[in-house]
Specification:
- By secondary structure, the protein is of the alpha+beta class.
- It has one domain (about 5-100): Ubiquitin-like (UB roll) (Roll), CATH 3.10.20.
- Helices cover about 15% and strands about 20% of the residues.
- It has helices at about 25-30, 55, 65-70, and strands at about 5, 15, 50, 80-85, 95-100.
- Strand 1 (about 5) and strand 2 (about 15) form a beta hairpin.
- The longest helix is centred in the middle third of the chain and has 8 residues, at about 65-70.
- The N and C termini lie far apart (about 35 Å).
- The mean pLDDT is about 95.
């Protein structure tokens, strides 16, 4: 099982099965403590904003275009900020640790 480690907004850690081949957002929006993902993965709202654990940042592809622009506008942006709709979950990402960023 490919595992995704999620820290919710209350600081509680959850370990869930990651869905290989789809965006991390797809898994997160199905959880009670997940993300709103209002735009449905179209990279136009930033309601799926997460912080990637420092140990994993370099293992993900760099932010591109619209994702970079949206993140720059967030007051809660950090170096590990990503829009979860733009990160495809793979077997190689098993163990990926992310924290759900506050709503903005």
């Amino acid at each position: 099982m490919a595992e995704l480690v999620i820290v919710d907004r209350d600081g509680t850690e959850h370990r869930v099965e990651g869905r290989v081949g789809v965006s991390i957002m797809e898994t997160l929006r199905e959880l009670d403590y997940g993300v709103a993902a209002i735009c449905g993965g179209m990279c136009s709202c930033a309601t799926c904003h997460v912080w990637v654990d420092d140990a994993w940042i370099a293992r993900l592809p760099a932010r591109q275009g619209d994702e970079q622009e949206l993140i720059q506008e967030l007051t809660s942006a950090k170096p590990g900020s990503r829009l979860s709709c733009q990160v495809q979950f793979t077997d190689e990402l098993s163990g990926l640790r992310i924290a759900i960023a506050p709503d903005e």
